[in-house]
Amino acid sequence: HVQLVESGGGSVQAGGSLRLSCTASGFTSAGYCMGWFRQAPGNQRELVSYMYRDRSTKYDDSVKGRFTITLDNVKNTLYLHTNSLKTEDTALYYCAKGSEQAGYDRDEYNYWGQGTQVTVS
């Protein structure tokens, strides 16, 4: 069955970095659009970044130039490299499996991990 397990979150000072991981099982990540979302308390879940099957990527303007999404096919693991972290990046970060063309359409993401907490102070 499909499973997504995130890890790598933690508490860091502003300006710091974290590498978030999302290990997938039950399917091949490279065959789908994969995304990273985040949700801060009191806010809606927002899309941070996604990667299409052809490895093209998109980023929300708030993280562009600071975050990078990558995929390790061998490990079937999606990463979110977060740099120059700001206090407003504090949130629970989720990875999600979407349809092949999911892109920004969050309704097209049908499997989610449990999330990993990022706290920036």
For the structure shown, list the relevant keywords.
mainly beta, seven-stranded mixed sheet, 11 strands, 121 residues, four-stranded antiparallel sheet
Description of the molecule:
The radius of gyration is 13 Å and the shape is globular. The mean pLDDT is 96. The chain is mainly beta. Strands 2, 4, 5, 6, 9, 10 and 11 form a seven-stranded mixed β-sheet that branches. Strands 1-3-8-7 form a four-stranded antiparallel β-sheet, with no helix packed on it.
Helix share of residues? under 10%
Give the CA-CA distance, first to last residue.
37 Å
The overall pLDDT average reads 96
What's the number of extended β-strand segments? 11
Mind sketching the topology for me?
Layout: E1 3-7, E2 10-12, E3 18-25, E4 34-39, E5 46-51, E6 57-59, E7 67-72, E8 77-82, E9 91-98, E10 109-112, E11 116-120
Parallel strand pairs: 2-11
Antiparallel strand pairs: 1-3, 3-8, 4-5, 4-9, 5-6, 7-8, 9-10, 9-11
